[in-house]
Amino acid sequence: xxxxxxxxxxxGEYKCRIVVWDNTGNSTEPSVPISxxxxxxxxxxxxxxxxxxxxxxxxxxxSLRCKSEGAKPPADILWTKTSxxxxxxxxxxxxxxxEIEPAGELYDTAEQIFYQLEENEMIAKISCxxxxxxxxxxxxxNITFVSPAIQNALKVTIQRFAEPVLYSSIExxxxxxxxxxxxxxxxxxxxxxPYNTSVxxxxxxxxxxxxxxxxx
Length: 216
Description:
Layout: E1 12-22, E2 32-42, E3 50-58, E4 61-71, E5 76-82, E6 88-90, E7 96-103, E8 106-116, E9 123-132, E10 137-146, E11 154-158, E12 165-170, E13 179-180, E14 183-188, E15 200-204, E16 214-215
Antiparallel strand pairs: 1-2, 3-4, 4-8, 5-6, 5-9, 7-8, 9-10, 11-12, 11-16, 13-14, 14-15
């Protein structure tokens, strides 16, 4: 018996019976039928057909939800984070909630995770890994977050009449137009910029004579 291609309707118990005739070696006696049978249960496994990530962000707080659809048995989900130097680590289970919902004869698996970006994290690549061991299937879905503000302090040095004097150390995490001493820093188009675009930072020292030398 060959089944191709297998469908969910093919799942079930199969029985094979054989019948042999035995006359116990006596040609004058009628043959006696001997019946033997074997049974087996066929399971049809289905890999997930669709994986999607949805997310909400509030500052450095991330809420991500990964959903795997149409698997049998239900798929497993794990979350990983990849550092800028390529090191991948699994995010602990403490911040996860999982749901498994039947969809006909298949199953949808959804898992939600809450993650907070560290203060020094400018970029975070988070992956939802859907694994279906019964069909040896792994599906990766990645999402990358970029910090909306420049996190490192900007130090401006002014040369007046002698050695350089440090007038200000400015951190623009709050997106404000900060001032310290004689120095003013502005950003075009602003202190919050989309990833893979351009930003121009400008330092000014109004009223300083002679014109100072700026060092970034």
